[in-house]
């Protein structure tokens, strides 16, 4: 594997996928990076059964196919497998997801390791990068929010995030793939995040300055409702890896 352009995309459907993939892969790749998932927390809360099929069911099939064909599998997971009470987290720390999305990704990790104990699990924080639509990342979506200057935007200044650029993640993935192709053992649970920690309010301040927008935002420093136990989706206050 020389460059990210060698990476390819394939649709994931669980029914008959294992046998079909095994039959179709006459020239199996060296590495499969499994990033497909439903990661919108509100969607996962609304329809956990359907999401389970993709985030866990398809993951189990992909892991067993990779194991059978001797392909290194890198499963992309999330810091949301942790509850945020004891950061920074080591790969050996016990997960305790607070919401159904985090639980589905943890279940995906378990399914991966059950079917392919030597697979790689790469846990990542909030991601951003080149986009076509602002809603592709919680970080870029902030621009959409603060462009609306008709009202003061009350933004969370409590939950700590580690916005990490996907180009850096691609570089990590490429290095893992290259090491594997050189014959090095690449396996186990890995964590990767940037060293910079920001709240949504702090991210919005930076975006406001970069785009030279009027500062019609305010910081919501109290514990946001999203963290309260009765809220529809709980988020960890921080899950530094
Ligand atoms: N975004 C983050 O901040 C973040 C943070 C940590 C970890 N992660 C993890 O990183 C991975 C990628 O997340 P993302 O932010 O890139 O999510 P995304 O923008 O929602 O992309 C999800 C991808 O999954 C694909 N997908 C969904 N259902 C599929 C199916 N049935 N068959 C084939 N592909 C399907 C989508 O393909 P289409 O575009 O064709 O629908 C899309 O390319 C996920 O595993 C997520 O849990 C994300």
From TrEMBL:
<dbReference type="InterPro" id="IPR005913">
    <property type="entry name" value="dTDP_dehydrorham_reduct"/>
</dbReference>
<dbReference type="GO" id="GO:0006556">
    <property type="term" value="P:S-adenosylmethionine biosynthetic process"/>
</dbReference>
<comment type="similarity">
    <text>Belongs to the dTDP-4-dehydrorhamnose reductase family. MAT2B subfamily.</text>
</comment>
<dbReference type="Pfam" id="PF04321">
    <property type="entry name" value="RmlD_sub_bind"/>
</dbReference>
<comment type="subunit">
    <text>Heterotrimer; composed of a catalytic MAT2A homodimer that binds one regulatory MAT2B chain. Heterohexamer; composed of a central, catalytic MAT2A homotetramer flanked on either side by a regulatory MAT2B chain. NADP binding increases the affinity for MAT2A.</text>
</comment>
<dbReference type="InterPro" id="IPR029903">
    <property type="entry name" value="RmlD-like-bd"/>
</dbReference>
<comment type="function">
    <text>Regulatory subunit of S-adenosylmethionine synthetase 2, an enzyme that catalyzes the formation of S-adenosylmethionine from methionine and ATP. Regulates MAT2A catalytic activity by changing its kinetic properties, increasing its affinity for L-methionine. Can bind NADP (in vitro).</text>
</comment>
<dbReference type="InterPro" id="IPR036291">
    <property type="entry name" value="NAD(P)-bd_dom_sf"/>
</dbReference>
<protein>
    <recommendedName>
        <fullName>Methionine adenosyltransferase 2 subunit beta</fullName>
    </recommendedName>
</protein>
<feature type="domain" description="RmlD-like substrate binding">
    <location>
        <begin position="28"/>
        <end position="214"/>
    </location>
</feature>
<dbReference type="GO" id="GO:0048269">
    <property type="term" value="C:methionine adenosyltransferase complex"/>
</dbReference>
<dbReference type="GO" id="GO:0048270">
    <property type="term" value="F:methionine adenosyltransferase regulator activity"/>
</dbReference>
<comment type="pathway">
    <text>Amino-acid biosynthesis; S-adenosyl-L-methionine biosynthesis; S-adenosyl-L-methionine from L-methionine: step 1/1.</text>
</comment>
């Amino acid at each position: 594997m020389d460059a990210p352009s060698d990476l390819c995309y394939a649709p994931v459907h669980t029914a008959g996928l294992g046998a079909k993939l095994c039959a179709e892969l006459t020239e199996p790749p060296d590495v499969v990076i499994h990033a497909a998932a439903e990661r919108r927390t509100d969607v996962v809360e609304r329809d956990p059964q359907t999401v389970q099929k993709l985030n866990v069911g398809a993951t189990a099939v992909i892991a067993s196919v990779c194991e059978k064909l001797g392909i290194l599998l890198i499963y992309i997971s999330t810091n949301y497998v942790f509850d945020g009470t004891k950061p920074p987290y080591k790969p050996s720390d016990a997960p305790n997801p607070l919401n159904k999305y985090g639980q589905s990704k943890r279940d995906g990790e378990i399914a991966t390791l059950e079917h392919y104990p030597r697979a790689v699990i790469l846990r990542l924080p909030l991601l951003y990068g080149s986009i076509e639509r602002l809603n592709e990342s919680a970080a870029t979506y902030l621009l959409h929010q603060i462009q609306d200057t008709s009202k003061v935007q009350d933004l969370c200044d409590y939950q700590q995030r580690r916005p990490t650029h996907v180009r850096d993640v691609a570089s990590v993935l490429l290095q893992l793939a290259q090491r594997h192709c050189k014959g090095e053992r690449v396996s186990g649970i890995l964590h990767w995040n940037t060293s910079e920690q920001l709240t949504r309010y702090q991210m919005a301040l930076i975006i406001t300055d970069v785009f030279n927008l009027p500062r019609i935002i305010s910081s919501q420093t109290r514990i946001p409702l999203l963290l309260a136990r009765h809220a529809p989706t709980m988020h960890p206050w921080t899950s530094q890896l």
